[in-house]
């Protein structure tokens, strides 16, 4: 067993992925793990997420990852003798367009395949469940009663509490300046203070900052920092707190209740992104150069969303939340080792789904680190699947931004 000064595993990043990976690794007897975070746990991208937890995803491997997150939430609640704040309100998918209908059919088929409850319902039944919806009778609607959403910070801290109980050491306010390397092997990290921590495996789970760290090794992670944002309205009597999430593929939008108002997200019609090498150390109060207030995005997407959500005209907006999600060109995540670079792994590029996938990613990465057969195929998540790329190249960054614009699953 290694000591805390020379741990077996160092995880860079104390967001929800770093904490989840630490929680799953803590189950391995004799394995020492240190998590390094330059701020507080879950303070950056994690806390700003809308945290939709939909059990069924268009792809089999993604569905298996999110199903593990639901299992993790139940297990963490039992461990602390208090259920986590998962709002099991269900989700509705509604669409009138042919692409939207095909998506609903695909989700229904996947639900049947994995044994998740899903029911086709009428437009009237959908509006009864989610009174903010305005649907015509030709709308296809799918009801998934077991979905929900959660406070992302609470889930992050639950992973961290479980990890601490099992001996994981968290070092906060510690910034990693360099990855240490001997030949083709990564041997540890150097902190901004000058302290070196040597480890058998280093996991880069630093969210949008992962790219700059990996570049020190000559590794170009296939992702880019793309804007992810949503609005929250003032309270309204037609928005019950126990109403379901709604996924609206026709407009690329989603909506759910939030403190008496409506929380809704829209895709960006124009590409809004940042360069990974120019990000500040903290994203608190961070604004993008393009459309920093989100007004242009709201104006361009308003009419499309309003067609199925006419209540928007009655809702004064109370809050605008903008942050960064790390998107890949294909929407799959970056998980695992980089061929040719020993001792280094990455867990990042979650394309707006990090909260929902956190338990699955934690388990998957822990299995890779400890040499167990992974419970999902590693092929879709390979770090090298995009070939020779430059993470900072504007053309590649736009490819990632286009993946955000194509997203229809919430």
Automatic annotation (TrEMBL):
Name the record gives this protein: 4-methylaminobutanoate oxidase (Formaldehyde-forming)
Highest rank taxon of the organism: Bacteria
UniProt KW Oxidoreductase keyword: yes
InterPro entries xrefs: FAD-dep_OxRdtase (IPR006076), FAD/NAD-bd_sf (IPR036188)
Species annotation: Marinobacter mobilis
SUPFAM superfamilies referenced in this protein's UniProt entry, alphabetically: FAD/NAD(P)-binding domain
A molecular function (GO) term: oxidoreductase activity
Signal peptide positions (record): none
Keyword Oxidoreductase: yes
Gene Ontology CC terms: cytoplasm
